[in-house]
Amino acid sequence: MPETQFTSAQVADSALTQPVANAKGVTLQSVTKRYGAVVAVENLTLHIPAGSYCCLLGPSGCGKTTTMRMIAGHEEITQGDIYIGETRINELPPAKRNTAMMFQNYALFPHKTVWQNVEFGLKMRGLSQADRQPRVEEMLAIVGLSQFAHRKPHMLSGGQQQRVALARALITRPQVLLLDEPLSALDESLRVKTRGELRKLQRQFGMTFIQVTHNQDEAYALADQIVVMDHGRIDQVGTPQEIFAKPISQFVARFTGDNNIFMGEVSSVVHDTQGHLIQLAVEGLGTLLCRGDFAQAGTQAACCVRADRLKLRSLSRVAEPEPAVNRLSARITAIEFTGYITRVTLMSEKTGAEMLYKSRTTDLMQTPLAEGQVVAVEWSAADCVFLAH
Ligand SMILES: Nc1ncnc2c1ncn2[C@@H]1O[C@H](COP(=O)(O)OP(=O)(O)OP(=O)(O)O)[C@@H](O)[C@H]1O
């Protein structure tokens, strides 16, 4: 079945797509959720600005869904407070919170038509047939499903069902829309297309969107603010660019990108015009130079360098690279062509540690590499990010 896309014209013509005048931010203040002995969310404090797109990102079981369900009111808060705008909502029933939730499996009513599914929220609010009619029509046009209005969900593709779910959530014009892995049921190409449309709708509606995802590419593409969670706690909050370029912990560096991580002990910290220049003594590799905001000499820490920030130099004639900071020799153990990018796996000659280098395939075509080849691997201190924990 061909996918109908949202079109700019449909969206621009719609009165519904005027920004939600009363979009509200969400604030969590020291929020904890326990299930018996299990601490699902621990002392979480977070502000999500009004009208922004926030992604809660983290591995399975880190507490993302629980956090969202507490905001929606589907889960009681054990401790702490949640505010929508200025209003404390701890005790408000879900229907009074002015939020809407879009579920992973879409949770459409199977026996209702697309029209009836989308109309449902307005009916529950007691709007008359005459008032519902133009709003449903308009919403179906926005999501490009007008011609499917009388079909049942099982007669739609996954992408179309996803749009019905989105239309059903948006039609009541909630102040906050909560989305639980909304793209996970779609195949790769549709997922990429649909996330662009989701972002466009969020911008045009000016609504606060909070989305749960375990996929960092999705979070990078969609979010104004990414909240990286681990074991019920927040590890880092930042823009996609900050999370990508400046992870603050080993967990974030591992989870959000192809980072090479080195563990060691801080041997010196020098403050200069660009911040802190930190020396990290790494067993087997000597001293690495990295940059960070704060470090304390004598503490155990780590640093990371992204796979695309390494530089490789052939060592065909010289067995060892001349000694220098942030340089080591490594053997290429695998070369994986993935299209635009080629991934090169290396093994440090001294420590046996595995490293990853990523290059544009076209660049590698100029200076080909071969499995088994020994190369000098180097990187600048500016690209080497200090990780305090
Ligand atoms: N009703 C429950 N009773 C007991 N433990 C629960 C309950 N719901 C969630 N948990 C536990 O709380 C923790 C957080 O769960 P949560 O569903 O919020 O994680 P998540 O990050 O959304 O994971 P996923 O990506 O797999 O959905 C997990 O350890 C989970 O097992």
From TrEMBL:
<dbReference type="InterPro" id="IPR050093">
    <property type="entry name" value="ABC_SmlMolc_Importer"/>
</dbReference>
<dbReference type="InterPro" id="IPR027417">
    <property type="entry name" value="P-loop_NTPase"/>
</dbReference>
<dbReference type="Pfam" id="PF08402">
    <property type="entry name" value="TOBE_2"/>
</dbReference>
<dbReference type="InterPro" id="IPR003439">
    <property type="entry name" value="ABC_transporter-like_ATP-bd"/>
</dbReference>
<dbReference type="InterPro" id="IPR017871">
    <property type="entry name" value="ABC_transporter-like_CS"/>
</dbReference>
<keyword id="KW-0813">Transport</keyword>
<feature type="domain" description="ABC transporter">
    <location>
        <begin position="26"/>
        <end position="256"/>
    </location>
</feature>
<dbReference type="Pfam" id="PF00005">
    <property type="entry name" value="ABC_tran"/>
</dbReference>
<protein>
    <submittedName>
        <fullName>ABC transporter ATP-binding protein</fullName>
    </submittedName>
</protein>
<keyword id="KW-0067">ATP-binding</keyword>
<keyword id="KW-0547">Nucleotide-binding</keyword>
<dbReference type="InterPro" id="IPR003593">
    <property type="entry name" value="AAA+_ATPase"/>
</dbReference>
<dbReference type="InterPro" id="IPR008995">
    <property type="entry name" value="Mo/tungstate-bd_C_term_dom"/>
</dbReference>
<dbReference type="GO" id="GO:0005524">
    <property type="term" value="F:ATP binding"/>
</dbReference>
<dbReference type="InterPro" id="IPR013611">
    <property type="entry name" value="Transp-assoc_OB_typ2"/>
</dbReference>
